[in-house]
Specification:
GO terms for molecular function: catalytic activity. The protein starts with a strand and ends in an 11-residue tail after the last helix. Helix content is about 30%, strand content about 15%. It has helices spanning about 55-60, 105-110, 130-135, 170-180, 205-215, 230-250, 260-270, 275-295, 330-335, 365-375, 380, and strands at about 1-5, 10-20, 25, 65-70, 120-125, 140, 160-165, 195, 220-225, 300-305, 340-345, 350-360. α4 runs antiparallel to α10, α6 packs across α7 (about 260-270) and α6 runs antiparallel to α8. It has a single domain (about 1-380), classed as Amidase signature (AS) domain (Amidase signature (AS) enzymes, Alpha-Beta Complex), CATH 3.90.1300. The chain is α/β, with parallel strands linked by helices and about 400 residues long. The chain is globular, with a radius of gyration of 19 Å. Strands 1-2-4-3-5-7-6-11-12-10-8-9 form a 12-stranded mixed sheet, with helices on both faces. It contains 11 helices and 12 strands.
Length: about 400
């Protein structure tokens, strides 16, 4: 294994590790033996190197892949812009004036820029799916607990999932095969029963997505999830409590932290046990709500984001960033698998997309649905789909 530091904002470190299979980038909050998992933070960059690989890294190497680097990220995986003042902000390859998204910014950028075939990120509240859409690539958050988090940071989480970025839905499936030895790909024998979830999005985005879905899926049902907004708020509460439990001591010790991270950790200190109990009640209610709909339908469909991702200058106002995970974060709380599929909208071809959600444990079926949708909806057929040249 060779390690080289470089002034590259997508990769925190370059590597040449493993065999000559699919090229993979690994988010810097995932352990690779002999390397520091700095988690995008100056507060952790001088920590002791990992003594073992994370389980997902070993799975990837066993699959014959080549790890090409550790990917940059939003500090402590606790932000949605991907902006990182210490290690550099990865540049969104397709929309360089816009945020790359967070927290798995470097992973999304590495894939969008063609540096690797797929990349690994982590998703606690949309941190794979949101940067995937910001950078115009595919992303999956598997069923909670399906993919081992051994060797991931923070060590304890009731929300976080190891996920995959790719430039095509087919490569997303291959990425899942690499990170999860239990994953067995499926082929659809008939069209899945789809239901669109009632969602509020900005008009220029909503019109484009609705027309695309109505044209390609005219028979899709229309359903509501009454506790969707409450689930978003509850997810914010849970991630705040769990992040401060993991990283709050960095504040107490006066460690160097970005102003946004320090502020969020201090705010999270105010979360009470009663707040957490209420959030857990919402988790149970919302999860049951989603499961009930799956008694009649196979896959739920929502817009991926309710707004167009902001520019870097617009993102300096936190109010422009908070809505980005409104439709993503609830499914971290419930634990259902979810995939985002990118679509560009409007005359300026701005980043947008749809999200599909499946039953727990049916990740392979959801991946098959994603591949089916890219072949069924004209909005994907007219988009530029990069050729998938790897058949492993």
């Amino acid at each position: 294994m060779t390690v080289t530091n470089q002034n590259d904002c997508a990769l925190a470190h370059t590597l040449d590790m493993g065999e000559d299979g699919l090229r993979v980038a690994i988010k810097d909050c995932i352990d690779i033996k002999g390397m520091v998992s700095a988690c995008g933070s100056a507060a952790l960059k001088d920590s002791a190197p990992a003594t073992t690989n994370a389980a997902v890294v070993d799975n990837i190497l066993t699959h014959g892949c080549k790890i090409i680097g550790k990917a940059n990220m939003h500090e402590l995986a606790y932000g949605m812009t991907g902006v990182n003042a210490v290690f550099g902000t990865p540049v969104n390859p397709k929309w360089p004036d816009r945020i790359p998204g967070g927290s798995s910014s470097g992973s999304a950028v590495a894939v969008a820029a063609g540096r690797c075939d797929f990349a690994i990120g982590t998703d606690t509240g949309g941190s794979v799916r949101q940067p995937a859409i910001c950078c115009g690539v595919y992303g999956i958050k598997p069923t909670f607990g399906r993919v081992s988090r051994d060797g991931c940071h923070p060590k304890e989480s009731s929300l976080d999932c190891v996920g995959v970025f790719a430039r095509t839905a087919a490569m997303l499936t291959k990425g899942m095969e690499a990170i999860d030895p239990t994953f067995k790909r499926q082929l659809l024998t008939k069209a899945p029963r789809l239901a669109r979830v009632k969602s509020t999005v900005e008009k220029k985005l909503g019109d484009a997505l609705v027309y695309a879905l109505m044209e390609g899926l005219p028979d899709a049902a229309y359903v509501t999830l009454p506790h969707m907004e409450a689930a978003f708020d509850a997810g914010m509460t849970v991630i705040g409590a769990e992040t401060v439990a993991a990283f709050g001591p960095l504040v107490d010790a006066g460690k160097p932290l970005g102003a946004d991270i320090r502020s969020r950790l201090l705010k999270a200190h105010e979360i009470t046990d009663e707040n957490l109990r209420s959030a857990e009640d919402i988790r149970a209610t919302f999860t049951s709500e989603v499961d009930a709909i799956f008694e009649d339908y196979d896959v739920l469909v929502t817009p991926a984001l309710p707004v167009i991702p902001p520019t870097l200058s617009e993102a300096e106002d936190p109010a422009t960033v908070l809505p980005l995970t409104k439709l993503l974060r609830p499914f971290n709380l419930s634990g259902h698998p979810a995939i985002v599929l990118p679509i560009s909208v409007g005359p300026d071809h701005l980043p947008a997309g749809i999200q599909i959600i499946g039953r727990k444990g049916e990740d392979a079926f959801l991946c098959a649905t994603a591949e089916w949708l890219t072949k069924t909806l004209s909005v994907f057929q007219t988009a530029s789909q990069p050729e998938d040249t790897h058949d492993r």
